[in-house]
Amino acid sequence: GQQVMQIPQYQHVQEGEDFTTYCNSSTTLSNIQWYKQRPGGHPVFLIQLVKSGEVKKQKRLTFQFGEAKKNSSLHITATQTTDVGTYFCAGLRGGKLIFGQGTELSVKP
Amino acid sequence: DGGITQSPKYLFRKEGQNVTLSCEQNLNHDAMYWYRQDPGQGLRLIYYSQIVNDFQKGDIAEGYSVSREKKESFPLTVTSAQKNPTAFYLCASTPDRVDTQYFGPGTRLTVL
Fold first, then answer.
1. Which residue of A has its CA nearest to B104?
2. Which of A50, B30, B42, B85 is the most exposed place for a label (fewest CB within 10 A)?
3. Cβ(B105)–Cβ(A42) below 8 Å
4. Interchain proximity B101–A45, CB inside 8 Å
5. Full pLDDT tens readout for chain A, 109 residues
């Protein structure tokens, strides 16, 4: 079926270390969106990438969309305890938004 | 204060009972969605509605039903036919089906 694969499922880091989560689709995506869900909370939209090879930054967060529009990554530089949560990618394909399984990030102070 | 509200936050039901989860939005969004979230499985689409009085099945619609009689409201009924109803249910809306999704706070349903 239609799937967007996201790895890793879990990531534990020491505060100050970097973190990256990857999102892969077997078919081309119209766009990719990233969401963050804090523990006990609901997903909150972070950013949307539309163009092939697009790179966007939000403070310590860097988002990339692959040249073939089949993969994406989210990189956090120098993690902080406030970065804790689950990060989801969601790819738009055929007018339908398909969510990855999410990467749960824990940060040890 | 605009947004999406879901009630209740926690819901307990006995096995075999139908239960309806509420979702209301005052964002004037056209499309609304229901997702189910289980640990390690991300968000799976149950039903969605792009306009009033119309809705479509998502990937896991079996055992669920919805209605869209008003633009602001999109209630989800979890029927007794749903084999594993215990989960976290999220409602979302968007002004256009291809735009970003605004999520409600969710309802955690536990069936005993």
1. A42
2. A50
3. yes
4. yes
5. 558 999 999 999 999 999 999 999 999 999 999 999 999 999 999 999 999 999 999 999 999 999 999 999 999 999 999 999 999 999 988 778 899 999 999 999 9
